[in-house]
Amino acid sequence: MRIRMTVMAGLATVAGSVGLYPLFEEHGWFAAGLGAVFAVACGGLLARRLRLPAPFNALFGLLALLVYLTVTYAADEAWLGFVPSPGSIAHLGALNEAGWAAANRYAAPVPLLPGISLMAAAGIGLVAVLVDLLAVRLRRTAPAGLPLLAMYSVPAAVRDDGVSWVAFGIGALGFLGLLMADAREQVAGWGRAVTTQRRQREVPLAGSRPRPEESAARLDATALAASGRRIGAVAVAVAVLAPAAVPGLTPRGFLDLGGGTGDGTQTVTTPDPLVSLKRELTRLDDSVVLTYRTDDRRGPDYLRLYALDRFDGDRWTYSPLQSSSRDRLNGDPLPPPPGLTVASAREVTTRVDVRPEVRNMTFLPVPYAPSQVSIKGDWRVHAPSLMIYSLRDSAGGRSYTVTSMRAEPTPAQLARAGIYPSEIVSRYTTVPRNIPRQVRQLAHDVTDGSSTALAQAVKLQRWFTRDGGFTYDLSAPAPQHGSDLVDFLLHSKRGYCEQFAASMALMARIIGIPSRVAMGYTPGSEVRPGEWVVRSRDAHAWPELYFQGTGWVRFEPTPSGVAGQGTADVPAYSLPQVTAGGGAEDLPESAPEASSPEDDGSASPSAAARQRDDAGPEGAAGVEEGDEGGFSAAPWLAGAALVALLMTVPMMLRALTRRRRWAALTAPRGPEDGAPPRRSPAGPPDEVSWTPAADPAEAAHAAWREMRADALDHGLEWRAGDSPRATARRLGELLELDPDGARALTRIARAEELARYSLSRSPEPPERLRADVRTVREAFAASVGRRARLRAKLLPPSTMAETRETLRSATDRAAELAARLNDLPGRLRRRG
Predict the structure, then answer these.
(1) Paired strand residues for 353
(2) What is the structure's pLDDT at 290?
(3) Region Disordered: start and end of each range (predicted)?
(4) What is the pTM of this model?
């Protein structure tokens, strides 16, 4: 029955399920999963008790899981309250469909509805069935880690922040416990463990009883333990160093300790801001997020959290923020908003109070464009986007004051907007090449006949809110891929603010208008004069389009009111009506200056024309190519350079060893060492110098060791038990040397033979032996293939063997030192 392995398999599954915690708001899912694992374990035990074939092990586990789910979720429809019936199975199917719909409706963490709880219990139970079958019944414990790892892949795919290292560590410990239990059973299957009597450290006195800890029989596993420690040390080193060498795995520097670049900057990383948008919109309690007071008598504007400037073909995100101490808020005015130069902007002061229940709000919701923010804590500003963020603080429970410049442009001012700066064009008109042709054509068809960027933007907005046949629907799944965008624009036409904002921003870029997606909150509801309340359902996303002179301007493609986002509103400057006769735009009556003769001739060219005039062919090409947000080859080139450098280490070590070996023989020696004098031909007749006088035995040994290393490097067999003469004879027959090579090999072998077995000195000088070694090395290289020659140069096995031996010795010394330190308290007690 393998009860111990059954228990360990269940514990490993339960430990692995801990990694699912980011998916749920409540903790009841864990109890449901625990019950499912217990039921599967009982089913597996019963199958093994009856000695049924392996497929029945999985079948009994599935039946036990079905009974457990029936008792927990469909007892009223089951026979006798626990036997599955057609009614109970239908009820479970309906619950599963409801849970699937809720999972698509909510963003993680999801509320623990009955259907979602059923899905969690069933998923954990299915993993338990696989683990029990592989590890217990089939005795394949290592592959059982794959279904355990699959549970971690779900939160890693759904949430950008993934799983904490604590949860992963718990699951890893569970799997390691399963492996150790299996190893113990396999060793026990061979019989009684072989033990050895450990030698006593002290000889007991006559008549005294030996200490139990000194004479206990223990398993003689010193070599096995040393190998295990070496494997563990190498595994830990690889796990620590490999992520540091791969670009993109450690965004905060080597080993994640530096936290930035050399100039003190740090990359700000946060979860995808759009992940929580749908969750906020679909919260059942519609909780209050914040309240604020404003002196804006004309009505407050949206509160912006994020400005998403990158579109990768699937989703909108913001470019990595490089934060430094210079970006901290210290009471001084913030950087000026990009492009805002009109004199009609007015100053607005807003006092915001965020509810204490709000968690992980590391970006401040502020009206655009903030000019000054007063708040306690370490808060910083991103100058290009004016996003306010913190590296360690949260806005929950905080109060702060924001002074902002609110621009209220007229349609005529937007229509006369100047030429786009090149940096705006290159960054905010970038479109990936994989955008379908239908979407590109659709953007041009919708805006056909418009002569200004404002007219194009108004047509896009009107198409989404009125003419395009779109429907606001919170039950639509969040877009994850480019195909979802195509389906929204061309087929389903159902979605919520994320789809509307993302689609309009993309289509604006396609026709040449700089755009981005903003996310935050609508103004909310006014509870008393000047005081407003913002709830979770006021979360919103909208596009921002750039107009020179006004900067970033908000548009509203999402339907508002009862049939859409309840508190969204369309800005007044985006309300001009488009005539049906040929593309001329009539501006509202509130803008009489639009019909003046001066304005007729000053109308700016279209957005695409402004882009071409300003950026030229290079700027136009930038629409297709990625810029800052695109692919950067620098990290990968750095990683490739690092890998190439690491690959040259064995080759450099081999060259260093060879040089050190011969350099030891040519160390300068004076007359006290018995070196013969040598007259200097360039100096006076009585001036002499001293030549090196190497020991012939040392030179012979060095030549022999060098030839042995060359043979191993080229993959030739080297028999340690052969004499030098036998080795030379075998290598000569193997290599078919020419006369020079044969004489060189013979001289090296004879020199080693005389140095090893005879008291007489070798007649060969070191220079001759060194040249002979070079000749033999060339013969080795000529006798093997190209792959062996490359390996001998790049990854010489002799160096790798010496490195392994050095590491083994170091590990053994460290283990011996640790053992001595471990025994130190016992020795001190005995001496005391």
Answers:
(1) 291, 399
(2) 94
(3) 563-628, 666-696
(4) 0.50
